[in-house]
Amino acid sequence: MEMFMEYLRAFLVGGALCLIGQLLIDLTKLTPARILVIYVVSGVILGALGWYEPLTRFAGAGATIPLTGFGYQLAKGVYLAVSESGLMGAFTGGLQACSGGITAAVLFGLLVALLFKRGDKTAKIFS
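Below the sequence we write its predicted structure tokens.
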């Protein structure tokens, strides 16, 4: 039963974050790129205020996988690196903390680009 509750909490928190993003797309004139930046910066701010850590403990992957989790992880990495290395940690800490996710995104993007043909799919639909 505990595993079910863990999945339910992750689903509800992750779903709420997605719902907020969808509402921002539907009800505002914000572009997806601006919403992405808002989510990452929100994760940084909530992490700095100490509010995101309890959320990650409560929701697990529901809070760490979305873009707010990426911003939180960046800020946490910078904070730890600055406390260990000083000012240089401000430049290296975020990349060290998120290097696994960044590497996976680049490698999967490369893999998809190699496996599938590129081309303009919309031209075939409307012609």
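The radius of gyration is 18 Å.
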